[in-house]
Design a protein that fits this description.
Elements (H helix, E strand, L loop, with lengths): L1 H13 L3 H30 L9 H50 L2 H6 L2 H43 L1 H10 L1 H37 L1 H6 L3 H54 L4 H42 L21 E8 L8 E8 L4 E5 L6 H8 L7 E6 L2 E2 L5 H6 L1 E4 L8 E2 H5 L8 H10 L3 H5 L8 E2 L8 H15 L3 E5 L7 H15 L3 E5 L11 E6 L2 E6 L1 H7 L2 H11 L7
Parallel strand pairs: 3-10, 3-11, 6-9, 9-10
Antiparallel strand pairs: 1-2, 1-4, 4-5, 7-8, 11-12
């Protein structure tokens, strides 16, 4: 059922190019018809060579000219057919890749967080390539194979009905053998694709985290993991290849029996005078042409099983549930005063494990809200909910008095500026990276933002300054320099609300003081959420929220919370006492 369902989806994509497909079929039919007419001409030529001194060279030359023309036309038709097949195949593959990539941008973060990124990459690149190979082989050989079988039968019936019956009687054995083997190879190819995805994930993980691997001397264990997955992939590949490779020899054996039967019965018929030697030659040629497509089709079936297994993984990814779309009457958030309200909010990543329960919070315009607490207390989760990276399970979040469920996602996120501990960079120039949030910004505005972020000096020293090209991992830039670029990006867009999650964690103390001064200027009149691990950075906050197990257990200014001598006081004092207790 999975196989049939996948095939229907493939045919839906192919149907967009039905004109090319029809043209390919026409050229395939013409190619087959001319190929099948050749044995008749060859048979007539043989019959004209009766014996010594009895050869009709004039008629033979006429036939040879016809044969040459037919061969030329056949080659032209096959060339045009292959061009059309390639066009259909790679257009379908292009459409599938575009759909898959579009799905990447519309998937909820919960899916991306819960699946290996390497496996997703493998589905979009490797599995689509595997599908393309099988589809192209199917177009190239399946059409001509089926048409050759039907056409050859017609031509054989015109030559000798009895011998044609012998051929038709034995040939179905090829189909039975091919069908029996192909039905068992689909699951093997599916396992092979899955193992390949695991291997891609591991390689991607090792490359992205090579510094960590080397720092913890993880090389040997990484190699062991790689060898284990690679061995399993090799085993599944060998099983699938072995069973699929049986098909062709098995059908060739059956086809050899057919050819032998035709040769014996045809020879007897020629001796009895019921057919000429030329006709026997034509018939043997037809018998060969009739059985040859069965070999090709059996090979195509094995490859097509692989293609369908790969396609099934791609479609499984494409059909994942996308982010909930904005309602039709969604509001564009324009006039933002920075007021934020959380009303009886409930949320958990796993329904079985509770996290945030009945969270209430009122943030006044322009306030600086610091969020502190132990690891796993819900600090980052709260930011994810404000940005609608995740939807709440229950309750209500309001921005400027409007429920965020009624606000367009784009306008909501445009009004927030984020600087996180983990930097966000893309492959492109320094200029492009800073302008990411404001593509229409002028060069002068970018430079001014970089100066405010204290990034201008190091950018100026780069080989091409602001036009220096960097990769998504930042290339030779230090982590601190990458973070300065992220800060410059926010300073360029200057949204009405800010989220700072240890934004200066990778910056030296002197630069941090300068950046903090720039932040203070930027935060004036803007509602700011500061997620802090170092409590020394939150002293100036208007309100400090202390989270534990998803709940606000304490709330107040730095001095008020210290005076309470509660959980915050213990956390603050433990940091400066150097104890592990209450680590944040």
């Amino acid at each position: 059922m999975t196989n049939k369902s996948t095939l229907k989806k493939v045919l839906t994509y192919i149907s967009h190019y039905r004109i090319h497909l029809v043209m390919s079929l026409i050229f395939a039919a013409l190619s087959v018809a001319m190929t099948l007419y050749l044995p008749i001409l060859i048979g007539k030529t043989i019959d004209l060579i009766i014996g010594k001194g009895q050869v009709d060279f004039e008629k033979i030359i006429d036939i040879l000219i016809k044969i040459a023309i037919l061969i030329g036309l056949t080659s032209l038709c096959q060339w045009l057919m292959n061009i059309l097949n390639n066009k259909v195949t790679y257009s379908v593959v292009k459409d599938m890749r575009e759909t898959a990539f579009d799905k990447v941008t519309s998937l909820p973060l919960s899916y991306l967080d819960g699946h290996q990124h390497g496996d997703i990459i493998s589905r979009i690149i490797t599995d689509v390539d595997q599908f393309a190979d099988g589809l192209l082989l199917g177009f190239s050989q399946l059409f001509t194979g089926v048409l050759s079988i039907v056409g050859t039968l017609v031509f054989m019936l015109t030559v000798n009905i009895k011998i044609t019956f012998v051929v038709v009687l034995i040939t179905p054995l090829s189909l039975l053998v091919a069908s029996f083997i192909a039905s068992r190879t689909y699951t093997m190819f599916t396992e092979q694709s899955s193992r390949r995805g695991e291997l891609t994930s591991l390689i991607n993980e090792m490359i992205d985290n090579q510094k960590v691997v080397q720092a913890f001397s993880y090389e040997e264990r990484a190699q062991e993991r790689f060898d284990d997955i690679n061995e399993k992939l090799g085993a599944s590949y060998l099983r699938a290849t072995f069973y699929s490779s049986i098909t062709n020899p098995a059908t060739r054996f059956v086809n050899g029996i057919v050819y032998t039967a035709v040769g014996l019965t045809g020879a007897i018929a020629a001796i009895n005078g019921s057919m000429t030697v030329g006709q026997l030659t034509s018939f043997l040629s037809y018998a060969n042409q009739y059985t040859k497509p069965f070999n090709e089709i059996s090979g195509v079936v094995a490859e097509f099983q692989n293609a369908l297994a790969s396609a099934a993984r791609v479609f499984d990814f494409i059909e994942q549930e996308s982010i909930k779309p904005d309602p039709k009457n969604a509001i564009e958030l324009e006039e933002v005063d920075g007021r934020v309200r959380l009303d009886h909010v409930y949320f958990s990543y796993n329904p079985k494990v509770s996290l945030i329960e009945d969270l209430n919070l009122d943030v006044e315009p322009g306030q600086r809200i610091a969020i502190v607490g132990p690891t796993g207390s819900g600090k980052t989760t709260l930011i994810n909910l404000l940005m609608r990276f995740y939807d709440i399970d229950k309750g209500r979040i309001e921005i400027s008095g409007i429920d965020i469920d009624k606000i367009t996602t784009k306008s909501l996120r445009t009004n927030f500026g984020m600087v996180l501990q983990d930097t966000w960079l893309k492959s492109g120039t320094i200029l492009d990276n800073i302008k990411y949030g404001r593509p229409d910004a002028t060069y002068e505005e970018v430079v001014e933002a970089a100066k405010s972020a204290h990034a201008h000096n190091f950018i100026r020293r780069l080989p091409d300054g602001y036009n220096t090209y960097i990769t998504d991992d930042g290339g030779d830039l230090s982590h601190g320099q990458k973070q300065l670029l992220s800060i410059a990006r926010v300073m360029l867009s200057l949204p009405p609300m800010l989220i700072l999650d240890e934004a200066t964690s990778s910056i030296d103390t002197r630069t941090e003081i300068e950046i903090q001064n720039a932040f203070n200027k930027m935060m004036e009149g803007r509602t700011t959420f500061i997620v802090a691990h170092r409590l020394s950075t939150v002293k100036e906050a208007d309100v400090i929220l202390v989270l534990k197990d998803g709940n606000i257990i304490e709330k107040g200014s730095h001095e008020e919370l210290l005076a309470k001598k509660g959980f915050y006081s213990k956390l603050y004092n433990s940091q400066f006492a150097g104890t592990i207790e209450g680590t944040i």
